[in-house]
Write a structure and sequence with these properties.
This protein has 247 residues and is an alpha/beta fold. Helices cover 40% and strands 21% of the residues. It is elongated, with a radius of gyration of 25 Å.
């Protein structure tokens, strides 16, 4: 994680750098907007809005893919509102506690990670799962259910469509993870838990898994059609792979 500190008060910049370096961050400095623009792709920019006699907005425009946190002496349109509209993520008022700064950095790191995951998931759904033929989802989905599928992608497509039909998010875990978590895997009632890989379990483990999923917002998938417990079941059979990454 590369952090660029844009600050013309050398003592303050060095102090921030030392404290962040102790937490494992790689830090660099720039005393001017021109120097900051010349730096290569920092992940995070801590940008002082009080650089003497300089326009700092070009830094925000140039490093538009970085997480930019403004370090401000006072709050007004020029120091906060305008740069936030230009693409900065947040601000922190000087003087500040380093723990508060790190909390902001970690928060926006997590936001960026989720954004990238959601983008990849959206592409996966639109370009992969949308091509797969699955049974029609009933108007009122009754959960839990056991999903028997010839291919995992078919099970994935059905589970995602079920979540959309129920207007819920989908949490994907493996059967082994679910056994380890126990009933805590189902704590979030706004989420359908999609459990994959039941076919890899032993018979007793399968029984334990389905017992855990009973009366929960859960979809359990298996690629073994010989699994035939007394459990609400949907079957998706296909003779060929529903989608090839070479298509």
């Amino acid at each position: 994680m590369k952090i660029l500190i844009v600050e013309d008060e050398l003592y303050l910049a060095q102090s921030i750098s030392n404290k962040l370096s102790e937490r494992g961050y790689e830090c660099d400095f720039a005393a001017t907007a021109k120097e900051a623009i010349a730096k290569d792709d920092p992940d995070v920019i801590l940008l002082s809005t009080n650089i003497s006699g300089q326009n700092f907005l070009p830094v925000i425009k140039h490093h538009k893919n970085a997480i930019i946190i403004l370090m401000v002496n006072y709050i007004n349109n020029d120091t906060v509102s305008i740069p936030l509209n230009e693409g900065a993520k947040d601000y922190i008022l000087k003087p500040f506690m380093i723990e508060e700064l790190i909390r902001k950095i970690e928060h926006f790191q997590e936001v960026e990670r989720i954004r990238k995951e959601n983008s990849a998931l959206r592409i996966f759904k639109e370009h992969t799962l949308a091509k797969i033929q699955i049974p029609e989802i009933p108007p009122k989905v009754k959960l839990p259910l056991l999903l028997k599928a010839t291919h995992q992608l078919s099970a994935d497509a059905y589970a995602f469509n079920c979540a959309e039909a129920c207007d819920k998010s989908l949490s994907i875990i493996t059967a082994q993870e679910c056994l380890s978590l126990g009933s805590s895997a189902f704590q979030d009632k706004r989420t359908i838990v999609f459990i994959t890989g039941m076919e890899q379990l032993k018979r007793q483990e399968k029984e334990e898994l389905l017992k855990l999923a009973q009366n929960q917002q859960a979809i359990v998938s298996t690629l073994n059609f010989q699994d035939s417990p007394d459990f609400p079941t949907v079957e998706i059979k296909s003779e060929s792979q529903p989608y090839s990454y070479d298509d």
